[in-house]
Amino acid sequence: MSLFSKRTATSPVTSYLSAFSKNDPHAVDDESSTPASSLSSSTTSDSEDTVIYDDDIDNADGLALPPRPPNSSEVFSTVHTEFGHCSNPKYRYLSQHTSGTSIPGHDDQNPEPPYYVLLSTYISYLLLICLGHIRDFVGKRMRPAAYRHLMPSDGYAPLNSDFDSFYTRRLKTRMDECFGQPVTGVAGRTIQILDRISPDFNHNQILTGSRTRALNISSYNYLGFAQAHGGCADAVETCIREHGVSTCGSRLEGGSSNLHVLAEALVAKFMGMEDALISSMGFATNSTFIPALVGKGCLVISDELNHASIRFGVRLSGAQVRMFKHNDMDALEALLREVISQGQPKTHRPWRKILVIVEGLYSMEGTLVNLPAIIELKKKYKFYIWVDEAHSIGALGPHGRGVTDYFNIPPRSVDILMGTFTKSFGSAGGYLAGNKDLIDSLRIRGHSGAYAEAMTPPVLTQVVASMASIMGIATPTMTRFDSSSTLQPSEAYHHPGPAPMSTLPTWLCLPPHLADGSEGTSRLRRIAFNSRYLHQGLIKLGFITYGHPASPIVPLLIFNPGKMNMFHRLMKDRQTPIVVVVVAYPATPLVSGRVRFCVSAAHTKEDIDTILRACDEIGDVLDIRHGVRPRWTIDQVCARALDLVQLS
């Protein structure tokens, strides 16, 4: 059954038996999986996900399934589900760095395109700029009413100068179709697009009222917890009944609720740190707590590709800032030697504090931080480390604990671990984890603690439920690495194992497949397989990709600005519509525009096949295959997926 195919008439008995088998979670073959969505069409239905027995059975001459509520396993078996079902154990991989192997550098992971590609890209921008300025010059004289916002009027200066707004007006606006695609519903494995048209070259967008269901490869739903069905969603509903939706219920002194305190304890346990604090906004976690840690007389050494929230927080702090080349450990060590030997400017006094800030996984490049090398430099030069794990927490490591887990590094060798709940956990907000004295100090000194609103109970419940699903919940008889735990003795990790009952609300009740951690482990291994398969598959097809094979973010380089919009449109207009994210300047360098695929555990192997086949066809149309490696055919890539994953 396809989501997009029209409903055909069937006999009552056939309809009943077909629906019953599809709703039976135990009737799934070991080799079966959710097929990829197919047959593009539009729908105006208000339902986000159609459950199979809603219409097919109620109209079948009175025959109906036994009256029981749907569970997540049943929803998994539908084509258009939020989380694709894949019971084949071969499509799993352990996300872990192999000890003794080198970590590829940024330059090794970023091959250069042919010169004609760069030349044509520069020429494209040159033509757009020249034509844009000519249009501005002529338009101000021929159509002054259309340029009123850029010209002085009634004694008032223009709000924006024509030069400052030139890129937005003449380049970005023409490509807004691929930058701002409106969607609705849950950002799961599939998502609904709001269809629209523009009669004036994207200056105005008009919604047609129809919707198109598409395969979603554009959301940070790394572990697939952004679901409206299942154990976590049920836990959130229970929380709403218990606590409501506001932050004012069950409050303690200091502005925190009991649930807030429990969530912070669980985060600390999950991260393997002494203590943790939770902030209601991921961006604010960096921008408001960095000034609480460093100030005048301190030095911040920042990777050149760090997120805007880090840059903003450092500017607010008043500390001196030095940047080093992205992920270049030789450049970092040379900079450390210089700043330590020279001290503060003018006075040359020793720095009060040196803080190195890096990201675990860089969202635009898909590269991993070389954390083992930074730890060695820390031992040598005695500085503090702040690791932003917004994209790596939950998505990397055999236990989902991020880059420290992936590299098998004790988490307490890092001073501050920062992360967000908006990606892998399907929630909102951010956290800081470290030693208790440091976290207690940040609670008082950080601006978020005093001025920001606390997280609401439903949002906290989503964090607790999803995190407990990854860890598993300890039973009274379970030891730290007991055989009943999801962590086998051979995989024993220095982090605490299952989540203790003391860190969970008494009313929280997860289904068995979440409470024992088995589904969490499966999700971690599914995203590891999907990430490597897509990354290596694109390379074998001849595309230039950036990033580490373990990264769930897979950038595919397009370069030419004219091809960005076409790639987005061709993917969306396929028989199986695919939603992608196109990224361009200023988020990336001017000539390295790219498509950024965001892989999820919710995707099946067939979904990745569909994406690779689409890229294979569109790559020839747009001439974006510029890789120099030996190429495979698309059939070879799909058939040898397991070999590709092992190669990474």
Automatic annotation (TrEMBL):
Question: Biased-composition ranges for Low complexity?
Answer: 33-45
The terms describing its cellular component in GO are: membrane; serine palmitoyltransferase complex
* Catalyses which reaction(s): L-serine + hexadecanoyl-CoA + H(+) = 3-oxosphinganine + CO2 + CoA
The record's GO molecular-function terms, alphabetically, read: pyridoxal phosphate binding; serine C-palmitoyltransferase activity
Describe the location of the Aminotransferase class I/classII large domain by residue ranges.
215-464, 518-614
Q: What is its EC number?
A: 2.3.1.50
Tell whether Thylakoid is among the UniProt keywords. Answer: no
UniProt KW keywords: Pyridoxal phosphate, Transferase
**Biological process (GO), any one:** sphingosine biosynthetic process
Q: Where is this region: Disordered?
A: 20-51
What cofactor does its activity depend on?
pyridoxal 5'-phosphate
Instruction: Specify the domain of life of the species encoding this protein.
Output: Eukaryota
Which family does the entry's similarity section mention? Belongs to the class-II pyridoxal-phosphate-dependent aminotransferase family.
Question: Under what name is this protein listed?
Answer: serine C-palmitoyltransferase
